[in-house]
Design brief:
Elements lengths: L3 E9 L3 H10 L4 E5 L1 H9 L17 E9 L5 H14 L5 E2 L3 E3 L4 H4 L7 E3 L2 E5 L10 E5 L11 H12 L6 E5 L5 H8 L4 E6 L2 H13 L5 E5 L10 E7 L2 H7 L7 E13 L3 H10 L2 E9 L2 E8 L3
Parallel strand pairs: 7-8, 9-10, 9-12, 10-11, 12-13
Antiparallel strand pairs: 1-3, 1-4, 1-5, 2-3, 6-7, 13-15, 14-15
């Protein structure tokens, strides 16, 4: 396994591109630029589906360049000398940190070590890379890839529990924000005649189709799209395991996607948001059927009033 090292360079704004060029010339190929101004610029045109927690970002006036390299390919002392020379020649304060070793590993697959088969009601969720014999439960194989949805998170868990309480035989299902497709696959396994899945992330669409094939399911269609912009018919069941601010945008448009006697399942909600989601649903002519909770998370089943 190769030994990887990293160091940080703190410099005034406007000098990061020049310093990055120096680093590239000296063999550094992996750089990360941390400029708080980028956060401020992004927030001006922030997409509705992205939530920025200001506590995750510390305002600062400098730019921080993070460099990563393999030990035998770069001379750190030469880099340190060049950066100090640049600082003196330009009469600016440029600080370079000491080398620190970082562990080299297959980050994309490291998490698989901790993902074991588990049960949600009568469904066994099984990672695709683990073989297991099971005849008493419905087996759902999953390979999330780079998309959200292993089934381990409480919100996904709650949605699968609630889907099992519904009668899905010959019903149509719409899965908004499908992630890995785990809820789409579960719906099909539970008897849905057709499932339409959407997500703004093309990797999620790819993962959903891959997991449908993995489970030998042919009645799931997945497309890239935002909320209901690719939906042109009504469904018996609509599932949305997404954030509250996105649900607030989605719910007023539900009449175009949910049958009059249909069921709406929404999750991605923490317990402290219970009153807010109930108010949003009731304001849009939906009545609460059931609220389930697991830990700090909740999932809500609702339907149109006066059906």
């Amino acid at each position: 396994m190769e030994k990887w090292l990293s160091f940080d360079i703190k410099c005034p704004k406007g000098y990061d591109e020049i310093i990055s060029s120096i680093l590239y010339d000296l063999g550094i190929e992996n750089l990360q630029i941390d400029d708080y101004q980028d956060v401020l610029d992004f927030k001006k045109d922030q997409p509705y589906w992205v939530v920025i927690d200001d506590e995750d970002f510390t305002p600062h006036d400098n730019v921080i360049i993070k460099a990563f390299y393999e030990d035998d390919k770069v001379n750190y002392k030469e880099i340190e000398a060049k950066i100090n020379e640049f600082s003196i020649n330009n009469k600016i304060d440029v600080q370079i940190s000491k080398n620190k070793e970082i562990e080299d590993m297959d980050w994309a697959n490291e998490w698989k070590k901790y993902y074991e088969p588990f049960y949600i009601g009568n469904i066994l969720i099984k990672p695709s890379w683990i073989e297991i014999d099971e005849t008493d439960h419905t087996v759902l194989e999953i390979n999330p890839g780079m998309a959200f949805g292993t089934g381990l998170h409480e919100t996904t868990n709650l949605c699968i529990e609630q889907l099992q309480h519904l009668q899905l035989d010959n019903k149509s299902v719409l899965d908004i924000g499908c992630g890995s497709g785990i809820l789409s696959v579960a719906s099909s396994k539970l008897g849905a005649k057709e499932v339409f899945a959407t997500d703004i992330d093309p990797l999620a669409v790819e993962a959903t189709l891959d997991n449908a094939e993995l489970n030998k399911i042919s009645n799931i269609k997945a497309v890239e799209g935002s909320l209901l912009d690719k939906v042109d018919k009504k469904y018996d069941v609509v599932i949305a395991n997404i954030l509250l601010n996105v649900l607030d945008i989605l719910i007023p448009d539900l009449p175009k996607a949910l049958e009059k006697d249909g069921i709406f399942i929404c999750s991605g909600l923490i317990n402290s948001q219970r009153d807010k989601i109930v108010n949003i649903l009731e304001k849009n002519n939906l009545e609460i059927v059931e609220i389930s909770e697991k830990g700090e998370w909740i999932s809500v089943i609702s339907r149109f009033k006066n059906v």
